Amino acid sequence: MRKEFRIKKNKEFQSVFKKGQSFANRQFVIYKLEKVDQEHFRIGLSVSKKIGNAVKRNQIKRYIRQAFLEFEDKLENKYDYVIIVRKPVADMGFEEVKKSLIHILKIARVLSKKN
Question: What Gene3D superfamilies does its record include (predicted)?
Fold first, then answer.
């Protein structure tokens, strides 16, 4: 995932937390914030040290980025997303992570239903 598609600065994370809407299921909490002038969506990831060791946390982040790349054409581009990972994700494989992300993005009404 290219750098312009990521949220990296704490100030940007905080603005999404404060001004955005949140949606949750058992595996993820997603915050979305509409950015009208933006051409492509951006994502920020938060994986706590409680989830596992560094290898496991990085693996989860790779799964999430890959899932977003696979359905980027179905996502609305004018949003910033912050994804907070919850503990059950540590025991999930890529397909389960992808399925859970699809579920939560449909709840947030940013993913088209033709999936």
Answer: 3.30.230.10
What pTM was estimated for this model as a whole?
0.88
Query: Within a domain: residue 44?
Result: yes
110 exposure class (CB count in 10 Å sphere: 0-12, 13-18, 19+): buried
Instruction: State the Cα–Cα distance between residues 92 and 57, nearest whole angstrom.
Output: 12
- From first to last of the 115 residues of the chain, give the pLDDT tens digit: 677 888 989 999 999 999 999 999 999 999 999 988 888 889 999 999 999 899 999 999 999 999 988 988 888 888 899 999 999 999 999 999 999 999 999 998 887 765 4
For residues 102 and 94, give the distance between their C-alpha atoms in angstroms, rounded to a whole number. Answer: 12
Residue 76 covered by a domain:
yes
User: What is the rounded CA–CA span in Å between residue 88 and residue 24?
Assistant: 13
Rounded CA separation 110/9 (Å): 23
Q: What CA–CA distance (Å, rounded) separates 17 from 44? A: 11
How many angstroms separate the CA atoms of 11 and 17, rounded? 10
